[in-house]
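Standup, Tuesday
Yesterday: got the pipeline producing structure tokens again.
Today: sanity-check two examples.
Blockers: none.

Example 1:
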Amino acid sequence: MKLYKYSIVLIFGMLLAACKKEGTLLMEPVSAYKPFSMVGYIMGDTLEQYFDGKKVRDFYGLAQFTGKIAFQGESTEMELRKKSTGEVMYKQTYYAANEDNIMPKFFFDGQSMAERYTYRDVEPGKYLSNFYFDTQFGTDPVDLIVEVQEYYFDWSKDDPFVYFDPVTVPLFSGLKPGQWSEYLEIPPIEELVMPQHPSEYYFNTQVFVKNARTGEFYAAKKDLSWFILAFPMQGSSEGRIQSFHITLKKNGIWQNYLSTRDLVQFFPR
């Protein structure tokens, strides 16, 4: 047990020696740890985070961090740099005397920083959505297909859910990756498929993403290639805006899967 204890002391002493050069500390001692938090959204280019000139991490898509800053003096300077050019897009100094260090919520579109993502006003009676497919999708246009499964309830059965076979219909076609689409009006499901039950019916919907040229799913398989889009109820006077940033990510076994973020929900008014 003593040998183990002495070994730890020796290693610690070696580390201290390695951090000195001609009597000067190469690694300044940490004077304080203070809470730090940030949240924002990034698209179009990666942002690199630096503290006092040292790179810490990359951010793309959702940029969210809650932790602590290690201060080696009274203050530290944080920078967010555009990865493709090294340009500093944001800079802020944080102070050890502050109990909380918070970066304001932000949006980065690949070119400039803003406080939020801006989107059009809601129009009564219309569901509108635009879409941004990341450059990972290549240059071929993208098609959106909706799979609709109708069901109703039969309360005379032990399992009251009664499902019809799913129906697949086109929703939007020819969307270009690497840019925002125009705002497209989303029709009620009843305008896409004819309800099979004469009176009471409900719908489950999944929107699938396909390559318009090849007809193939972008993700590894169909089950990984869909997202949820809100559809209006027929005759509803309500309106809604949706703005989807759609990317491809890899799961634990390196399969591509679809990842979506509705920026209207992320930046509510």
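Example 2:
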Amino acid sequence: MEDVDWQTTLDADDLRRMTPLVRVRDLKPADVILCRGTAIQSKMINLATGGRYSHAMMWWPDQENGSFAVFAESDKYGVGLTHLPFVTIQIPGVGDIEAVPFGGRYSELLVLRHKSL
């Protein structure tokens, strides 16, 4: 198998396409993430409901492979699991930030957490 270099340098435009981003350290198991989708179906949901968000998902850490975020969300079969890879953003003078990129699918996110968590 060929070795793959997963380190890639991105410019500002590449990083913008990955937004919105959520820092991994800001997420806790069972957080609910409300999303405003970019697809036409999402816009129809917004119009029909009068709501700001068109989608919801729940997050929990992937215990077997710590480099992915796992979300339970509705799909065309009912409820399924979506695995999104973490990205590490290196910021000089700040350090590394692990984040989950939602670029392309959503234009806005809101993370909700029960007050006892």
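Quick observation on example 2: The longest helix spans residues 40-49. The two ends are 43 Å apart (CA to CA).
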